[in-house]
Design a protein that fits this description.
The protein has four helices and no strands. It is an all-alpha fold.
Protein backbone atom coordinates (compact mmCIF):
# COMPACT_ATOMS: atom_id res chain seq x y z
CA UNK A 1 0.00 0.00 0.00
CA UNK A 2 2.88 2.38 0.76
CA UNK A 3 4.16 2.14 -2.82
CA UNK A 4 0.69 2.80 -4.26
CA UNK A 5 0.21 5.79 -1.97
CA UNK A 6 3.64 7.19 -2.83
CA UNK A 7 3.06 6.69 -6.59
CA UNK A 8 -0.35 8.38 -6.54
CA UNK A 9 0.89 11.20 -4.31
CA UNK A 10 3.82 11.93 -6.64
CA UNK A 11 1.55 11.66 -9.70
CA UNK A 12 -0.96 14.02 -8.12
CA UNK A 13 1.78 16.48 -7.18
CA UNK A 14 3.39 16.66 -10.60
CA UNK A 15 0.01 16.78 -12.34
CA UNK A 16 -1.08 19.75 -10.23
CA UNK A 17 2.24 21.55 -10.69
CA UNK A 18 2.13 21.11 -14.48
CA UNK A 19 -1.54 22.06 -14.76
CA UNK A 20 -0.98 25.09 -12.54
CA UNK A 21 2.00 26.29 -14.56
CA UNK A 22 0.01 25.76 -17.76
CA UNK A 23 -2.70 28.06 -16.41
CA UNK A 24 -0.15 30.68 -15.36
CA UNK A 25 1.45 30.60 -18.82
CA UNK A 26 -1.67 30.38 -20.99
CA UNK A 27 -4.40 32.10 -18.99
CA UNK A 28 -7.82 31.75 -20.64
CA UNK A 29 -6.37 29.56 -23.38
CA UNK A 30 -5.80 26.83 -20.77
CA UNK A 31 -9.52 26.61 -19.98
CA UNK A 32 -11.67 24.79 -22.56
CA UNK A 33 -14.41 27.13 -23.71
CA UNK A 34 -12.98 30.22 -22.00
CA UNK A 35 -10.54 31.56 -24.62
CA UNK A 36 -12.57 34.76 -25.04
CA UNK A 37 -13.60 35.20 -21.38
CA UNK A 38 -11.77 38.51 -20.99
CA UNK A 39 -9.11 40.07 -18.80
CA UNK A 40 -10.83 39.49 -15.44
CA UNK A 41 -11.16 35.73 -15.89
CA UNK A 42 -7.68 35.57 -17.42
CA UNK A 43 -6.21 37.31 -14.35
CA UNK A 44 -8.17 35.07 -11.98
CA UNK A 45 -7.19 31.93 -13.90
CA UNK A 46 -3.49 32.78 -13.85
CA UNK A 47 -3.65 33.53 -10.12
CA UNK A 48 -5.46 30.24 -9.45
CA UNK A 49 -2.85 28.49 -11.59
CA UNK A 50 -0.17 29.76 -9.21
CA UNK A 51 -2.21 28.53 -6.24
CA UNK A 52 -2.70 25.13 -7.91
CA UNK A 53 1.04 24.95 -8.49
CA UNK A 54 1.57 25.47 -4.77
CA UNK A 55 -1.04 22.81 -4.03
CA UNK A 56 0.90 20.39 -6.24
CA UNK A 57 4.12 21.25 -4.40
CA UNK A 58 2.39 20.36 -1.13
CA UNK A 59 1.57 16.91 -2.58
CA UNK A 60 5.21 16.50 -3.62
CA UNK A 61 6.36 17.56 -0.15
CA UNK A 62 4.14 14.87 1.38
CA UNK A 63 5.44 12.26 -1.07
CA UNK A 64 9.02 12.92 0.07
CA UNK A 65 8.27 12.20 3.74
CA UNK A 66 9.05 8.76 5.18
CA UNK A 67 6.44 7.62 6.02
CA UNK A 68 4.01 9.71 4.04
CA UNK A 69 1.98 11.70 6.60
CA UNK A 70 -1.53 10.28 6.36
CA UNK A 71 -3.11 13.37 7.91
CA UNK A 72 -1.56 15.60 5.23
CA UNK A 73 -2.77 13.28 2.47
CA UNK A 74 -6.28 13.37 3.94
CA UNK A 75 -6.29 17.19 4.04
CA UNK A 76 -4.96 17.52 0.50
CA UNK A 77 -7.45 14.94 -0.77
CA UNK A 78 -10.26 16.76 1.04
CA UNK A 79 -9.35 19.99 -0.76
CA UNK A 80 -9.44 18.10 -4.06
CA UNK A 81 -12.83 16.64 -3.14
CA UNK A 82 -14.10 20.12 -2.30
CA UNK A 83 -13.16 21.17 -5.84
CA UNK A 84 -15.31 18.34 -7.18
CA UNK A 85 -18.19 19.41 -4.96
CA UNK A 86 -17.77 22.93 -6.32
CA UNK A 87 -18.11 21.57 -9.83
CA UNK A 88 -21.33 19.78 -8.82
CA UNK A 89 -22.69 23.05 -7.43
CA UNK A 90 -21.82 24.79 -10.69
CA UNK A 91 -23.57 22.01 -12.61
CA UNK A 92 -26.68 22.47 -10.47
CA UNK A 93 -26.71 26.28 -10.87
CA UNK A 94 -25.53 26.74 -14.48
CA UNK A 95 -25.94 23.38 -16.18
CA UNK A 96 -23.51 21.10 -17.95
CA UNK A 97 -20.06 22.59 -18.62
CA UNK A 98 -17.53 21.65 -21.30
CA UNK A 99 -17.09 17.87 -21.47
CA UNK A 100 -13.51 18.08 -20.24
CA UNK A 101 -14.77 19.76 -17.05
CA UNK A 102 -17.14 16.84 -16.51
CA UNK A 103 -14.21 14.41 -16.76
CA UNK A 104 -12.29 16.51 -14.22
CA UNK A 105 -15.28 16.48 -11.86
CA UNK A 106 -15.42 12.68 -11.97
CA UNK A 107 -11.69 12.48 -11.16
CA UNK A 108 -12.10 15.00 -8.32
CA UNK A 109 -14.94 13.00 -6.80
CA UNK A 110 -13.52 9.49 -7.29
CA UNK A 111 -9.84 9.93 -6.43
CA UNK A 112 -10.11 11.41 -2.90
CA UNK A 113 -11.75 8.30 -1.40
CA UNK A 114 -8.85 6.28 -2.83
CA UNK A 115 -6.40 8.60 -1.07
CA UNK A 116 -8.41 8.40 2.17
CA UNK A 117 -8.36 4.60 2.01
CA UNK A 118 -4.63 4.39 1.18
CA UNK A 119 -3.76 6.91 3.90
CA UNK A 120 -5.70 4.85 6.45
CA UNK A 121 -3.90 1.67 5.35
CA UNK A 122 -0.51 3.40 5.53
CA UNK A 123 -1.24 4.83 8.96
CA UNK A 124 -2.21 1.41 10.33
CA UNK A 125 0.86 -0.30 8.87
Amino acid sequence: MAKALRFLTVLMGWSCVLIGLLHVALGNAAIPGAADAGATIDSWGRFMGAAFTGYGLAWLWAARRRPIPASVVRWLAAVFLLGGVGRLLSLAVYGRPHGFQVVLAVIELVLPPVFFWLADKEERA
